[in-house]
Design goal:
By secondary structure, the protein is α+β, with helices and mostly antiparallel strands. It has two domains: about 30-120, Immunoglobulin-like; about 125-220, Immunoglobulins (Immunoglobulin-like, Sandwich), CATH 2.60.40. Helix content is about 15%, strand content about 45%. The protein contains two helices and 19 strands. A five-stranded mixed β-sheet has the order 11-19-18-14-15, with no helix packed on it. A hairpin with a 6-residue loop joins strand 18 (about 195-205) and strand 19. It is elongated, with a radius of gyration of 34 Å. About 15% of the residues are buried. Residues about 225-238 have low confidence and may be disordered.
């Protein structure tokens, strides 16, 4: 009999609690964020901002900002105006490192909503790897690297100095042993004709472009024994 009373009391308390929660929640909504984009086209040295506002949701609403899934706090480059609805994230003096995915997370006691947008910072190319002068032996295969960061993604042009003019590689199969693969220049089966000055040009439509030159020197190895035998035959015949 006592157990029945305990169970009845437990059910009554549970029902009362659920009714209380339902009363509190009546007419209230989980937040819904209005999609957003950067307010200004981002360029290095410039300024941009994100404006996060709810389409619906019961107050109070709390806003948290993230970049690449890491929470953002005020810093020398970033300011957050208000952690309530609406909230504005401002990036001062944009750097290339500010590129990434920015998320606004808006929550109340009923739940949360989040929205993510990508920030791509436009800027001129910056060197990642510059080619250097290279020395190899005849018959070797050379691989030369040249790469740069920047947005839009930089395009690469390989060139070779011919006379007083720079020509693009490859050019009309003039140097059929040279293969251009994006950020790599491969020279197969090198010969004395591979000697020369080469260049790498990086551009993405935003000045300044990047340009660097490098020398390729091929050492030709002669067979000592062969030359020795040839010299002996020549002296005998004379």
């Amino acid at each position: 009999m006592l157990e029945i009373k305990v169970i009845t009391m437990y059910l009554w308390i549970t029902f009362a609690w659920l009714s209380f929660i339902a009363t509190l929640s009546f007419g209230q909504e989980v937040p819904k964020i209005n999609p957003f984009l950067p307010s200004i086209k981002p360029v290095i040295g410039g300024k941009t901002s994100f404006y996060c506002q709810s389409l619906s949701g019961s107050s109070p609403l709390h806003v948290t900002w993230f970049k690449d899934d890491k929470e953002i706090h005020d810093s020398s480059f970033i300011r957050i105006k208000s952690n309530e609805d609406p909230s504005v994230l401002i990036i001062e003096t944009i750097q290339s490192s500010h590129s990434g995915n920015y998320t606004c997370r808006m929550s109340n006691k009923l739940g949360y909503d989040s929205y993510t947008t990508e920030l791509l910072v436009q800027g001129s190319p910056n060197w990642i790897e510059k080619p250097k002068d290279i020395t190899a032996h005849s018959g070797d295969t050379l691989t030369v690297n040249c790469s740069a960061s920047g947005y839009p993604k930089p395009k690469i042009e390989w060139k070779r100095l011919q006379g007083s003019s720079w020509i693009n590689l490859p050019s009309n199969n003039l140097y059929s042993n040279q293969i251009q693969l994006s950020d790599k220049l491969i020279i197969k089966n090198t010969t004395r004709e591979s000697n020369g000055k080469y260049g790498c040009l990086m551009s993405n439509g935003i000045e300044p472009n990047l340009w660097t030159e490098f020398d390729v020197t091929i050492k030709v190895i002669f067979s000592y024994n062969y030359l020795s035998q040839s010299f002996k035959l020549w002296t005998r015949s004379s």
